């Protein structure tokens, strides 16, 4: 039995996709819709999905997918972590917690030490998954038995999972690419062109790889789906909320404050991490200042372009 905790667009999409394998429970704090989630228009929920606001019912499953935003995950674990012991917990969050400066797996392990923790990440849009379009994701799990079992349980004919034991690398790839996507969107929104976007993507990937290695990840993990794959998708598509947010910043347009933009909070977390560890993260620093309104896109680009010339 599988439960998806979090009835946003992505959690709902996962529930729809996994329902082809068997019954799925979809839990949300406030569900005021029936048959179709307004965050995922045009996608009817199959009969195999039980939608509930009863958390105890959802926690009866052995596999729990935590489809919660990175900045909300800590609070959920504080409130309900005691009921998650012994479960197989799969986080889909793509971010770094602002208060703890850690990724989702570390937060889960700290509150649920006897749980078996995994991370599901990679290049994907909720609408594609829900409509059964081919999607490949990374499933990261350090446990040699739990990883293969989850890979089998969470794969479908259209949803292909590739396994790794490098949990840190997988979740850092998913978190850091959101920051670069905001920068890429800002470049396009400001009318600076595709060549400038390509430069941001390339240097952003280098920044991602350096930071991941500093935090103990394997650099080669960043060349896979959870790093380069997800980076490519989010930096080149209007389907990415982080890219759209950056484009709005670059064009001087307002952005819907109700829309979750994981990369903005992650950029602020990276700024604190850089200060703590003495790291040079120029793109993350500029995204933080842009999102906080402390610099314009032109000032941010001038700063990045005035950095010392050096070998690649």
Automatic annotation (TrEMBL):
<feature type="domain" description="Glycerol-3-phosphate dehydrogenase NAD-dependent C-terminal">
    <location>
        <begin position="166"/>
        <end position="301"/>
    </location>
</feature>
<protein>
    <recommendedName>
        <fullName>Glycerol-3-phosphate dehydrogenase [NAD(P)+]</fullName>
        <ecNumber>1.1.1.94</ecNumber>
    </recommendedName>
</protein>
<keyword id="KW-0963">Cytoplasm</keyword>
<dbReference type="GO" id="GO:0005975">
    <property type="term" value="P:carbohydrate metabolic process"/>
</dbReference>
<keyword id="KW-0560">Oxidoreductase</keyword>
<feature type="binding site">
    <location>
        <position position="126"/>
    </location>
    <ligand>
        <name>NAD(+)</name>
    </ligand>
</feature>
<keyword id="KW-0443">Lipid metabolism</keyword>
<feature type="binding site">
    <location>
        <position position="124"/>
    </location>
    <ligand>
        <name>sn-glycerol 3-phosphate</name>
    </ligand>
</feature>
<keyword id="KW-0520">NAD</keyword>
<dbReference type="GO" id="GO:0141153">
    <property type="term" value="F:glycerol-3-phosphate dehydrogenase (NADP+) activity"/>
</dbReference>
<feature type="binding site">
    <location>
        <position position="122"/>
    </location>
    <ligand>
        <name>sn-glycerol 3-phosphate</name>
    </ligand>
</feature>
<feature type="binding site">
    <location>
        <position position="241"/>
    </location>
    <ligand>
        <name>sn-glycerol 3-phosphate</name>
    </ligand>
</feature>
<feature type="binding site">
    <location>
        <position position="94"/>
    </location>
    <ligand>
        <name>substrate</name>
    </ligand>
</feature>
<dbReference type="InterPro" id="IPR036291">
    <property type="entry name" value="NAD(P)-bd_dom_sf"/>
</dbReference>
<dbReference type="GO" id="GO:0141152">
    <property type="term" value="F:glycerol-3-phosphate dehydrogenase (NAD+) activity"/>
</dbReference>
<dbReference type="InterPro" id="IPR006168">
    <property type="entry name" value="G3P_DH_NAD-dep"/>
</dbReference>
<feature type="binding site">
    <location>
        <position position="30"/>
    </location>
    <ligand>
        <name>NADPH</name>
    </ligand>
</feature>
<feature type="active site" description="Proton acceptor">
    <location>
        <position position="177"/>
    </location>
</feature>
<dbReference type="InterPro" id="IPR006109">
    <property type="entry name" value="G3P_DH_NAD-dep_C"/>
</dbReference>
<feature type="binding site">
    <location>
        <position position="94"/>
    </location>
    <ligand>
        <name>sn-glycerol 3-phosphate</name>
    </ligand>
</feature>
<keyword id="KW-0521">NADP</keyword>
<feature type="binding site">
    <location>
        <position position="126"/>
    </location>
    <ligand>
        <name>NADPH</name>
    </ligand>
</feature>
<keyword id="KW-0547">Nucleotide-binding</keyword>
<feature type="binding site">
    <location>
        <begin position="6"/>
        <end position="11"/>
    </location>
    <ligand>
        <name>NAD(+)</name>
    </ligand>
</feature>
<feature type="binding site">
    <location>
        <position position="94"/>
    </location>
    <ligand>
        <name>NADPH</name>
    </ligand>
</feature>
<dbReference type="GO" id="GO:0046167">
    <property type="term" value="P:glycerol-3-phosphate biosynthetic process"/>
</dbReference>
<feature type="binding site">
    <location>
        <position position="241"/>
    </location>
    <ligand>
        <name>NADPH</name>
    </ligand>
</feature>
<keyword id="KW-0444">Lipid biosynthesis</keyword>
<keyword id="KW-0594">Phospholipid biosynthesis</keyword>
<feature type="domain" description="Glycerol-3-phosphate dehydrogenase NAD-dependent N-terminal">
    <location>
        <begin position="2"/>
        <end position="145"/>
    </location>
</feature>
<dbReference type="GO" id="GO:0006650">
    <property type="term" value="P:glycerophospholipid metabolic process"/>
</dbReference>
<feature type="binding site">
    <location>
        <begin position="241"/>
        <end position="242"/>
    </location>
    <ligand>
        <name>substrate</name>
    </ligand>
</feature>
<comment type="similarity">
    <text>Belongs to the NAD-dependent glycerol-3-phosphate dehydrogenase family.</text>
</comment>
<feature type="binding site">
    <location>
        <position position="242"/>
    </location>
    <ligand>
        <name>sn-glycerol 3-phosphate</name>
    </ligand>
</feature>
<comment type="pathway">
    <text>Membrane lipid metabolism; glycerophospholipid metabolism.</text>
</comment>
<feature type="binding site">
    <location>
        <position position="262"/>
    </location>
    <ligand>
        <name>NADPH</name>
    </ligand>
</feature>
<dbReference type="GO" id="GO:0046168">
    <property type="term" value="P:glycerol-3-phosphate catabolic process"/>
</dbReference>
<dbReference type="InterPro" id="IPR013328">
    <property type="entry name" value="6PGD_dom2"/>
</dbReference>
<feature type="binding site">
    <location>
        <position position="10"/>
    </location>
    <ligand>
        <name>NADPH</name>
    </ligand>
</feature>
<feature type="binding site">
    <location>
        <position position="230"/>
    </location>
    <ligand>
        <name>sn-glycerol 3-phosphate</name>
    </ligand>
</feature>
<feature type="binding site">
    <location>
        <position position="29"/>
    </location>
    <ligand>
        <name>NADPH</name>
    </ligand>
</feature>
<comment type="function">
    <text>Catalyzes the reduction of the glycolytic intermediate dihydroxyacetone phosphate (DHAP) to sn-glycerol 3-phosphate (G3P), the key precursor for phospholipid synthesis.</text>
</comment>
């Amino acid at each position: 039995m599988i439960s998806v905790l979090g009835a946003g667009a992505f959690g709902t999409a996962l529930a729809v996709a996994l329902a082809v394998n068997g019954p799925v429970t979809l839990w949300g704090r406030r569900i005021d819709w029936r048959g179709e989630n307004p965050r995922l228009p045009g996608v009817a929920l199959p009969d195999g999905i039980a939608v509930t606001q009863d958390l105890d019912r959802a926690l009866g499953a052995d596999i729990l997918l935590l489809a919660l935003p990175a900045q909300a995950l800590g609070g959920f674990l504080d409130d309900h972590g005691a009921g998650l012991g012994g479960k197989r917990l799969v986080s889909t969050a793509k971010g770094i917690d602002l208060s703890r400066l850690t990724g989702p797996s570390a937060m889960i392990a700290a509150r649920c030490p006897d749980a078996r923790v995994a991370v599901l990440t990679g290049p994907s849009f909720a609408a594609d998954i829900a409509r059964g379009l081919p999607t490949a994701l990374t499933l990261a799990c350090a446990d040699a038995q739990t990883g293969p079992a989850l890979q089998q349980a969470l794969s479908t004919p259209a949803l292909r999972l590739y396994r790794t034991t490098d949990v840190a690398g997988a979740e850092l790839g998913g978190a850091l690419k959101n920051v670069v996507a905001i920068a890429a969107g800002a470049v396009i929104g400001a009318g600076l062109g595709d060549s400038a976007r390509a430069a941001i993507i390339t240097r952003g990937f280098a920044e991602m790889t350096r930071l991941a290695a500093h935090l103990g990840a394997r650099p080669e993990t960043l060349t896979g789906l959870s790093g380069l794959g997800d980076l490519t998708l989010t930096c080149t598509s209007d389907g990415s909320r982080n890219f759209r947010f950056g484009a709005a910043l670059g064009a001087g347009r307002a952005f819907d404050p109700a829309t979750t933009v994981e990369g903005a909070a992650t950029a602020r977390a990276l700024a604190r991490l850089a200060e703590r560890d003495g790291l040079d993260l120029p793109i993350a620093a500029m995204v933080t200042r842009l999102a906080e309104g402390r610099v314009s896109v032109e000032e941010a680009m001038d700063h990045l372009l005035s950095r010392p010339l050096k070998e690649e």
